[in-house]
Give the backbone structure.
Amino acid sequence: MCSGDESTIQGASNVSNATVTTEPEFRVVTTSNYAMLIFGTGEITGGTNGIRAESTSSGTITITTTGHIEGTTGDGISAQNHNGTDISVTTGSVTGGQSGIRAENDGDGVLTVNTYGNVRGTSYDGIFAENHSTNLNVATGAKTEVTGGRHGVYAHNTGDGVEDNAVKGCFNWLF
């Protein structure tokens, strides 16, 4: 059981076949050059966010899951990179009370979101992707549905790179 407001990691941690239960508002913040890698095949449900990854280091954030991810009152997946390079999110189905997937890159790299299952954001966006650096790529698999209370997909690039959105499924709004 993890509790408290956050856990700070200073180095690498590897765990196999772990069951992790967290209190609402728990998060992991990295402060070293490793940033964060999350890989999973099982279902993840959080009282607030399903997965919340935030980096203030110079590394990348990579989240790869195939099981269903749910954030009951927050985001299904929230990834924020403040000083690092890339964010890569590759998922199966995701549901969030606010946004399904919320990815914001204030770092120096590429933001990539690939979904191969349905994504739903109840109050806000199915997928919210905002990049302030180089390229922004959002892709959904064939026959996926991306829905949100505001937008199905909100993709915004304020950087100097390419914005490439390959939405192959159904969505209720692309902005």
The first strand starts at residue 7 and ends at 9. The chain has no helices and 19 strands. Confidence is low (pLDDT under 50) at residues 1-12. The chain has one domain: 7-171.
